[in-house]
Structures are given as structure tokens and as C-alpha cells.
Design the sequence.
């Protein structure tokens, strides 16, 4: 099946610094990727939709200048948390829209394993 | 905007028994997709089952089946013959279209006891 990877799986950074998280579709091209955030013991909240070659679409309440998303190729989207603070500590999950599946008559969406961000 | 509600924060079930998880949603769309995802301790999201709203037949995947009631906007998941490996968080999710962004419910933690 289709695989989505994220790097790093866990990152610790100091308050005020920036950190970049990569999301890659390994065996398929993904024109659309999604970034979610998950706080401990809570659900996933969509942050933004990343479209290859165009600007990301952010959900209401998400600071686009703080969470920079770049989808520069058909297999890579990046999320940069700028000037990170402890409240940005969370689990970040990306997903990618895969190719049309004839048998299902639908697109499939594939999730990465997530990145745990800790800001000290 | 769509909302998804899971009213059971936690459920426990004996191994080999059946457990049913509830999910209700709110939308003005007529065509849409509903999903159940499993998130084990590894936190990798795993698709369990999905239902297209235009299909009246309830989806089934091995031990997992759903009861989709479109008029009531209800989408419950039944896990039959529960196994220890079913222990996980389960999220109900809504999407306007296939491969589109997902709106998740709050989740239900399922604990399968030996």
C-alpha cells in the first residue's frame, strides 16, 4: 500500500527557534496533503490543506505566519513552526491524498506516523 | 461547518465479545463520506472502515461493521469478536468528498480485556 513518511519522528527545540517537519509520499504523487495537530489525549484538528505549487489553505484560527507550509513538489510538503513556544508542543500528523482507486471508486488518504514536537 | 460527536470517551470489552461505538454528525451536505479510524499506542492512524452516504448498504470489513442511519445522522461502529489488538483510540471522521480534509470526533478509547 501507499506509504507516507514524516521526519523527524520526534524533535525537541528551544523556545524562540524554528523547526521544520517533512511529510513525504514515498510511492505515489500527492498533489494535496493535510496537516493535523493532536494534543495529548485529544482528537486531530486540521491545521491546513497543502496543495502542490500553490499556497496552503489554513483553517480558521491557525496562524499562517507561525505555521508555514510549503508543498514544493508532488511528494513533499513541509511544515515550519516559527518562533516556537511551549504551547506549540504537540503531535503533528500529515496525510496525503493518494491516487484514484478504481475498486473503491474513490481517493484514499494515507497518514504519516506523526511528529512529536516538544518546545522547552 | 460539519461537526462530529462521539459521546463515549472510553469503553471496555472482554476479549471475544462485541462492542459498539457511537458517532453522530451534523452536516447540510447530501453526499459525503464517513470513516472510522483506529489510533493504537504507536499513534499511526489506521483506516478501519468507511461509508459513502449515497450507499444504503452498511459497510463491513471482517469483524468491523457500521450502522449508518443517514436520516438520524448516526454512524456507529461494531467490533465483533474483540481481540487484544483492538485496544486503541477510535475516531469517527467526516469528509465532504473522497480524499478531502477530515473532521474528526473526539475519540473513544477502547480497552479489550483478556
Sequence:
Amino acid at each position: 500500500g501507499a506509504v507516507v513518511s514524516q521526519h523527524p519522528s520526534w524533535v525537541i527545540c528551544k523556545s524562540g527557534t524554528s523547526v521544520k517537519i517533512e511529510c513525504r509520499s514515498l510511492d505515489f504523487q500527492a498533489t494535496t496533503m493535510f496537516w493535523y495537530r493532536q494534543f495529548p489525549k485529544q482528537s486531530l484538528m486540521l491545521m491546513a490543506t497543502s496543495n502542490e505549487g500553490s499556497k496552503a489553505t489554513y483553517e480558521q484560527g491557525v496562524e499562517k505566519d507561525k505555521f508555514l507550509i510549503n508543498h514544493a513538489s508532488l511528494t513533499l510538503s513541509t511544515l515550519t513552526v516559527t518562533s516556537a513556544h511551549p504551547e506549540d508542543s504537540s503531535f503533528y500528523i500529515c496525510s496525503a491524498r493518494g491516487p484514484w482507486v478504481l475498486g473503491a471508486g474513490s481517493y484514499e488518504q494515507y497518514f504519516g506516523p506523526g511528529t512529536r514536537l516538544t518546545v522547552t | 461547518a460539519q461537526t462530529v460527536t462521539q459521546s463515549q470517551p472510553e469503553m471496555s470489552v472482554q476479549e471475544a465479545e462485541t462492542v459498539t461505538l457511537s458517532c453522530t454528525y451534523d452536516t447540510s451536505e447530501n453526499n459525503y463520506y464517513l470513516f472510522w479510524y483506529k489510533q493504537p499506542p504507536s499513534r499511526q492512524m489506521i483506516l478501519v472502515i468507511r461509508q459513502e452516504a449515497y450507499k444504503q448498504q452498511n459497510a463491513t470489513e471482517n469483524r468491523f461493521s457500521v450502522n449508518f442511519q443517514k436520516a438520524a445522522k448516526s454512524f456507529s461502529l461494531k467490533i465483533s469478536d474483540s481481540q487484544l489488538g483492538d485496544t486503541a483510540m477510535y475516531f469517527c471522521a467526516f469528509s465532504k468528498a473522497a480524499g478531502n480534509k477530515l473532521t474528526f470526533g473526539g475519540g473513544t478509547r477502547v480497552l479489550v480485556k483478556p
The mean pLDDT of chain B is 96.
